[in-house]
Amino acid sequence: MTEQAVLWEAGTRPRRRNTISTTSSGVDNNILNRIEIGGETDALTACHVNTDNKEGESSYHYAEEPLKLPPSVLTAAICYASLILALIYNVSNGEVPPNVETSVRIAQYLAVGIGESHHTAPRGKTANQLTGDSLAMVMEDEVPIGIYLSQVLSSTVISPGNLLRWRRMQIATTRKYFKEDIHDYKEKSKRGRGLRFFLKSLNFFDAVVMLTPMAVVSYRQQSGYYQCTEISVTFGSEIYRDAIIKWPDSSVQYAPGSFDKMVLAYSYFNGVYMKDLNKTNDGRPIYFELKKSDRTPFDDQGPSYNPYNLGWWRFDAVRPAQFMYCDGRWIFTHPYVFKSRNEETKCQWLARSEETSSFDLLSVIRNGQWEVWQGTIQDTRLSAKCNTCEDDATCNLNGICNKDGMCDCNVEDSVYHLGVHCQVRVKSECRTIIGEKYGDIWSNEIKPWVAGSNLTIDQEYDRPIYTYVEGLPDDQSPMEGANFVMLYSGSRWFVINLVGALDEEALVYWRWQSQNFHGLWTRAFEDNGIAMQVSEPTYGSVPTETDFFYLGKFNVDFLCSTCLREFTGLFLNLTTGRRNSQFGPYGELIPAQVNNQTGNGLYRCKDRTCPYCKSARLRPGIWGNQANVTVPSDFYISKYAGLSCDYFSELAKITDEGSMECQGIQSVAKMLCCPGGT
Fold it and tell me: What global pTM score does this model have?
């Protein structure tokens, strides 16, 4: 006769005496008596494996005392709360992985599904139930649930179902086996039916609690919600001196498909990279380079006018570099730059990470070693930050983190803050700098070309652009219609000549150049480039406290092939350096400081001018009724005798604050010229 298996659930009490038989002679008689009597078995649960004894198969039966209803509900509530709190905590702290492999996600859902499938009370052959329990527990103990909790929640949180099942299995499997035959058991109490309904509802709720947040997290992972949208990347000082460039077949500036060589300083590619919202590679995001001027995408087309008049009239647009995942590594790549002319590979890398399956480029850059191509493979490290701010501290306390997660930089105490995280400080006195050698004046308050940007300070690579104002000798000053600018290129400052920058007909060209400037693709620093000076490597906010050097021999023909006869030694006295294999990538570097010194720096900030009369008007003074009253001859500072208050007013504008001259001017102002003595 095939045996019937019945789970005695809490609250189910047999009303008839049951016959109990056992296959184990060592069963505790007290247990058997309790079952036979049936009077105190409300808390007893029996799980059975039923087989047909006629076929000679053994039967295993075990029993346990489950958790009582009140503590079970309390335990479940605590576990649910822990699970929800763990999810909230880890999501808010950014500990949810940006994404996982498809195989892992499938395992996660299978684990939850299997785990939930055996919560219900046994039906049919209990052997199937025990098999399902065992399989689910193995999976929960080892991989999938562990993956779910560690990969999705990044924390060890035990689900309510797991806690109750593990407790039941622990007790049940430590008891001796016995066999129970219930010949006649049909009636169940209403309380038992209600409890079974409650347990089924609890199982359904458990599945909802597990699957709903998991589905939300999975959707967000696949949509890139947990990946940084913009990152700022900084390369080291590595230089690929003979970078092989292959111009695209669509080039309008160079011979289509032709090869070229350029000096590639990886710092030219410092800056902001944005995640491509429409493309991925191998399930990972692709990050592309943004403009160095305003952190927006490069223009799709170049200008149609070329003031250099070298035989071409159109320019190629700047093609951005990319970070992408390829063949088990994250790589930095550019479609125009190759390691050799014969390179044919889908992973055309210039820098690459260690082998990894990570979906998070930011963590790979921060925590891993990279290899960079310099003609040979060299080890290097990159640095990167997510551009999304969390609070004002992320903005270096120099700005406010707005509701969009971006820093709005402050202008306070006459200090301007630039950069994604307001990390670049430009003091008001450093908006104008003065050269040591000639007293030449450069300012970032003057637009360097006919049409500047809408920014408060025109900038490249998060540093201000300085425009030449005056002070250089005539034979070293810009030609008519041209101008000099000093700008940053990732790790060095360069002084370059902008031919036609002030010509209205060149408006479109220079507007495009200013907005799409790039240290490499502008080619300002090549042999035939337009750079005149270069600084030593520096990461300072302004070009002070750093040495400058004249670059190697300057190609005058390139500057103005039609006006060579008009040159009167322009730049020839400045750029006498040589370029050959003896020197570095920028050729012979001749110190631009006085007496060819190094270590002094070439430029200084214009000091604050001498404070003079806070009031807008001058007072007549005690010796007269006019603002231009002169200082009496017996004034204690004899050199000021006969000078007027008007004179001191103008003198203060060109006198540095803190100088001895300023102290003298303030003495006159206090005693003679200013209302209230100030």
Answer: 0.68
